[in-house]
Write a structure and sequence with these properties.
By secondary structure, the protein is α+β, with helices and mostly antiparallel strands. The chain contains 12 helices and 19 strands.
Length: 461
Amino acid sequence: MTTPQDELLPGTRRALLHRIAVAQREGRAPSLVAAVVRGGETVWTGARTSVDGHAPDANVQYRIGSITKTFTAVLVMRLRDEGLLDLVDPLEKYLPGTGAGEATIAELLAHTGGLAAESPAPWWERTPGSLRPELADVLGERPLLHPVGRRHHYSNPGYSILGALVEELRGAPWEDVLRREVLEPLGLERTSGQPQAPHAGGWAVHPWADVLLPEPAEDLGRMAAAGQLWATAGDLARFAAFLTEGDDRVLSAASVAEMRMPAAPAEPDDVAAGSAYGLGMQVQYRDGRLLVGHGGSLPGFLASLTISVADDLAVVVLANCTSGPLVSEVAGDLVKIVAEAEPRIPEPWRPLPEVDRSVLELAGPWYWGTASYALRLSVDGGVSLGPLAGSGRRSRFRANGDGTWTGLDGYFAGELLRAVRRPNGAVDHLDLGSFVFVRQPYDEGASVPGGVDPEGWRGIR
């Protein structure tokens, strides 16, 4: 991936540098490196450090903690797309006897499997993985803390189970599968389970004095699929581009988009904060933007990968301290700086290359009862249906090739839309999941909710 630094305006570059400089100083991070991706390419990198002349670049490895979970989720989605498992399958089908077998694969991906947040003591992030050689050691005597599927409860052991699932179905170690199926196809040559020079050292910064303590870099063993990886800002920039557009060598755009969709019931505090969780990806609504990605932390390191698909922007922020700068907030701010200073230039409007006249005649206003809707044709051959004005139920629909459409999102996701015609071929109404849309409010000739009072519309004196 190239790094054409002049693709952003000087004022934008200065604002980005200022933001990470403030974050490094106020967060007291020994070093901090960031990258901005637009159009699938790195367009800016910046770094700050406490050591003169040794600022890291986009090729220096940092530990990325729970961003590892997104890599693991990609492996699981590949197994699904190959037909080797279904997301609604219970874990017991593939890994019997864990004590968590009631949870489905999707629930483990979305942290709704009811599992504990951490493995039994001692703290797994700061002790050797050899202390937990088996899944039973990771899950403990009481794996489930909550009813399966009822609430979002972030679980590191849940992703250890998913790593074991990958190993079971691939017949190879998790890291070997990851390298063969994801890292090598995407060109992520500087992402690994163990640190490879050049790499940053992990530090703890004393909360009340400007002094440091080195953090150990433990091999997490069975917990590796939850947080083992080391990566560079450059590699994570490439990974962010993949999570935006997909890559058929690894995972299709449709499957990557599925990962970005909320899949877990949000806690009340999450609703207030505008955050949710998909299939291995965090989702947040911040500053008027929908941001997806993942954060990560392990002793000595903080990491954030943040994507705004609508703005075609992604940001990576890495620091080598146990606590300090709020890297997810820094990443969100970097997205905002670029998006507002240099908004995405939309593609030119172009007319459709061709149009089916039987579909064109469906375009325009429709009524469900007294609510007015508009059906519009889209460039991809589908249609959209939504309120003529204001908020309300709206969805996009994919053409099925037989004169019907299937809802892609919103209230009507998965529902079938079809035009019902009279014997002479004229359109009578639209049927959408039993909802009848007609050309006039409460059309007398329409079925429910057509007009039912024989006197029809009237005024009141």
